[in-house]
TrEMBL record:
Keywords: Antiviral defense. Residues 14-178 form the CRISPR type III-associated protein domain. PANTHER family: CRISPR SYSTEM CMS ENDORIBONUCLEASE CSM3 (PTHR35579:SF3). InterPro entries: CRISPR_Csm3_endoribonuclease (IPR052216), RAMP_III_fam (IPR005537). The keyword Zinc-finger does not apply. CDD domains: RAMP_I_III. This is RAMP superfamily CRISPR-associated protein.
Length: 184
């Protein structure tokens, strides 16, 4: 079994939601760890990789590729061999950057609040449509994919290149990123 690492470099603001509201500060807050640092859950990253791998397999029109995606990421439902062969860790700041941010007390400076409102067909803002969302500044996060066979490396590497956006409001310009997979 093998372990490889991945990096996610964000080129603009991004938002992975916590499901919580910030009261008067923002309608939607970013997911943070116990140190108030942003992270992305491994299951979210795995879902993005799976979707990209399924797209690749569909484009190649090869039954073998579809079968490889099912074997790597698991099948839906329950069966004896439905489990995934891949484990994705959470994506986090590097330990060096995290320690420096925490020691300088800069964790709150990683976030901004942006506002948006609904505009009607006449170009006028609709009443009671103002929304505020906490976003994270551009950063690079790191994680690992563990316990997999070497034959899945190419699938993961190609899938990573297909992921261009991550998080909420991807269709509105948030979350532009680049994911790279590399051997440790």
């Amino acid at each position: 079994m093998k372990t490889i690492k991945f990096s996610i470099q964000f080129y603009g603001y991004w938002h992975i939601g916590s499901g919580l509201s910030g009261g008067t500060k923002a309608d939607s807050l970013v997911l943070k760890d116990h140190n108030k640092l942003p992270y992305i859950p491994g299951k979210t990253i795995k879902g993005l990789f799976r979707h990209a791998a399924e797209e690749l397999a569909a484009l190649s029109e090869s039954y073998l590729d579809q079968d490889m995606v099912q074997k790597a990421f698991g099948t839906f439902g329950y069966s004896e061999d439905s489990g995934s062969k891949l484990f994705f860790s959470d994506a986090q700041l590097s330990s060096i950057h995290a320690k420096e941010i925490l020691s300088l007390g800069l964790s709150e400076s990683l976030y901004e609040v942006i506002s948006s409102t609904k505009i009607d067909e006449l170009g006028v803002a609709e009443d009671k449509s103002l929304r505020q969302m906490e976003v994270t500044i551009p950063l690079t996060l790191y994680g690992a994919i563990t316990d997999f066979e070497s034959k899945y490396y190419e699938l993961l590497s190609k899938s990573a290149t297909m992921i261009k956006y991550l998080g909420l409001n991807r269709n509105r310009g948030l979350g532009r990123c680049e994911i790279k997979v590399f051997e440790s």
